[in-house]
Amino acid sequence: MLHPNQFEVNEAWIVFQLNDEPIQTGRDGAFNCVCLMDAASCFILGNALVPVDESEPSRVEVQRLLRTALDQRQEFPSRLFVPVAQFQTNLPEESERQGIEVVRLPEGQLLPFIREARQSFKQYSKARSLPLN
Questions:
Q1: pLDDT in tens, the chain (133 residues)
Q2: Would you say 15 and 34 are in contact if contact means Cβ atoms under 8 Å apart?
Q3: Which domains does the chain have, with CATH numbers?
Q4: Phi, psi at residue 99, to the nearest 5°?
Q5: Is 110 exposed, middle or buried (0-12, 13-18, 19+ CB in 10 A)?
Q6: pTM value?
Q7: Treating both helix axes as pointing N-terminal to C-terminal, what angle do 59-73 and 90-97 enclose, rounded to 10 degrees?
Q8: CA gap 114, 37 in Å, rounded
Q9: CA–CA distance from 71 to each of 38, 68, 100 (Å)?
């Protein structure tokens, strides 16, 4: 099983969907939040909101997401971990174009990295949906 302590900062990044349930907006519809995380530090380097009817960020959004992470880290990692059967086109193509090896893994192998972020987001979402007294 993979674990953050097996990596150096900026050695590998992980892309994953942060939310379990779609993020509802009153005006623009429902979205999923796609995050890019450093595998060693579990620091979220950037995110993109993707309409639920799209399977991944657009090419332009992927470029923005990678550029945002690059601005923080000053270099790309050697590998990008991507959950199997997710983010099939734009994300892997643009990552490989930047010289990043795309490694597909079952999402369960990524849980040691992403579990805390998902739980925190879920708690935050639940707290925001509670009525104020």
A1: 889 999 999 999 999 999 999 998 888 889 999 999 999 999 999 999 999 999 999 999 999 999 999 999 999 999 999 999 999 999 999 999 999 999 999 999 999 999 999 999 988 887 776 554 4
A2: yes
A3: 4-118 (3.30.420.10)
A4: 85, 15
A5: buried
A6: 0.91
A7: 50
A8: 8
A9: 13, 5, 16
How far apart are alpha carbons 15 and 112 in whole angstroms? Answer: 13
Quote the tokens at residue 18. 């942060």
Please write down the HEC assignment for all residues of the chain.
CCCHHHCCCCCEEEEEECCCCCEEECCCEEEEEEEEEECCCCCEEEEEEEECCCCCCCHHHHHHHHHHHHHHHCCCCCEEEEECCCCCCHHHHHHHHCCCEEEEECHHHHHHHHHHHHHHHHHHHHHHHCCCC
The residues near 33 (Cβ < 8 Å, ≥ 6 apart) are 17, 18, 19, 23, 47, 48, 49, 50, 121
Burial of 27 (0-12, 13-18, 19+ CB in 10 A): exposed
